[in-house]
Specification:
β11 and β12 form a beta hairpin. The chain has seven helices and 14 strands. The radius of gyration is 17 Å and the shape is globular. The longest helix has 19 residues. The chain has an eight-stranded mixed beta sheet. A six-stranded mixed beta sheet has the order 7-8-9-10-11-12. By secondary structure, it is an alpha/beta fold.
């Protein structure tokens, strides 16, 4: 399998494209029609295989692009069981905030396309022996989904590179710490791909786990009105597949980098 990061604005989103021999998977679709259209164009520069979608959690910048992909004929949208439950309501709750960043948003009733749930340990087949494994998690939200692709974990906003982790009202700091402890113990993993920023190694994840543990133990963790003052951590090295340019290439404002 080949794996590409697709970095785009708004909000420094890092989507991930996994290309197998029979089909491809895009992880996270962006904040709305414009970003989703550019992501789809970047995907089609890489592969014309049938495409499936997975969403890492129910925040607007990760799944409001779903209808654009559905309108383009993409079928097979996946998320955690909690995402299936919560995303229709999240579309209504987050529509006003998303409208500040994304133009021409569909109405909230049209943002939540039908989603197939992935249970912990479920797999998506992209070809003969080419599987993506699901790990259901909580912490950043109750709807978090992690995907394993060989030595990589695609973790959405459970890890943040280049900016502080976003501990919102729907976050559970103690559960988040436990999730990161679980992820660094997954055998055979070398790198983690966050939902914003560049891929990082396991030492980065351990450091961010320590930051979150300190916050979870503080008095602020009991007050949902207090925003976490967590440090922004930066990747110390860049990940690229052998022979691929580390800086990637740009397609319609989407920075594409092959990492596996």
């Amino acid at each position: 399998m080949q794996v590409f990061t697709l970095a785009s604005d708004p909000v420094r989103l890092t989507s991930v494209l996994v290309v197998g021999s029979r089909r491809a998977l895009l992880v996270d679709t962006g904040a709305g029609p414009d970003q989703a259209t550019r992501l789809l164009a970047a995907v089609r520069q890489i592969t014309d295989l049938p495409l499936a979608i997975a969403n890492t959690h129910d925040h607007w910048d990760h799944f409001f692009g779903n209808p654009t992909f559905a309108e383009a004929g993409v079928t097979g949208f996946h998320g955690s069981p909690a995402f299936v439950r919560d995303s229709p309501g999240s579309a209504w709750l987050q529509h006003a905030e998303a409208s500040e960043h994304a133009f021409d948003l569909p109405g909230p009733e049209d943002l939540a396309v039908p989603i197939e749930p992935l249970e912990d340990g479920d797999t998506l087949e992209l070809g003969d022996g080419e599987v993506v494994e699901a790990l259901v998690a909580t912490g950043h939200t109750d709807t978090d989904l992690v995907l394993r692709v060989g030595p990589l974990l695609l973790v959405g906003d459970l890890v943040e590179e280049g900016a502080p982790p976003q501990v919102g009202l729907d976050a559970s700091p103690v559960a988040w710490v436990r999730t990161l402890e679980r992820l660094v113990e997954v055998p055979g993993i070398t790198h983690v791909v966050p939902g914003h920023g560049r891929p990082v190694d396991l030492d980065f994840v351990r450091t961010q786990r320590t930051d979150l543990a300190a916050f979870a133990a503080s008095a602020d963790a009991d007050d949902p009105a207090v925003r976490a003052d967590l440090p922004a951590r930066m990747a110390t090295s860049l990940l690229a597949a052998p022979g691929a340019p580390v800086a990637g290439t740009e397609v319609l404002g989407v920075r594409v980098t092959r990492i596996l």
